[in-house]
Amino acid sequence: MSKPIYVLSGPNLNLLGVREPEIYGRQTLEDIRVLCEARAGQFGRTIVFRQSNHEGQLIDWVQEARTEGCAVVINPAGYGHTSVALLDALKTLAIPVVECHLSNPAAREDFRRSTYVSLAATGLVSGFGAKSYELAVEAACGLAA
Ligand code: CA2
User: Fold this and answer.
1) Domain boundaries, the chain
2) Is the dihedral of CA 85, 69, 29, 111 positive or negative?
């Protein structure tokens, strides 16, 4: 059995489907977990799906993925725009990293136009709502050893 794809979500994404549906859609993070699991399954892969509001927790999971995962899909949420520490953790990985966003940050406020995470990512999927996660998982399936 191959190692799982780590699908990590950052702060406030636990509120998906509850607030700001016009930006982030009506699907909950649990809905997205189910979609990701199904998509990974189509490629014979499994996922580890986790969300945290805490930077250090996300970094611990990235470090765990170094030995336990075959790829990382990450929606860093606000930490993408601020966290050099998360970037440093991602840069230690020898496995593929796919960055993922529900909205298209490049079409929003200036401060969202770039993320630190992009510097460690093989590629980026953004703007497709929950589908961004599915597409990112599919990309990770194609990239993973
Ligand atoms: O579009 C994305 O996925 C973002 O990563 C979402 C972040 C934002 O800071 C990034 O620029 C783009 C914000 C996540 C906030 O999540 C919420 C979910 C439901 C209701 C309110 C906020």
Assistant:
1) 5-143
2) positive
DSSP-derived 3-state class of residue 47? strand
User: How far apart, in whole angstroms, are the C-alpha atoms of residue 144 and residue 25?
Assistant: 29
CATH number of 5-143: 3.40.50.9100
Pocket test for ligand 1, best of 7, 8, 9, 12 (most atoms within 8 A of CB): 12
CA torsion, points 42, 132, 130, 119, in degrees to nearest 10? 120
Predicted model pTM: 0.98
Helix axes 29-42, 130-143, angle to 10 degrees: 30
pLDDT in tens, 54-78: 999 999 999 999 999 999 999 999 9
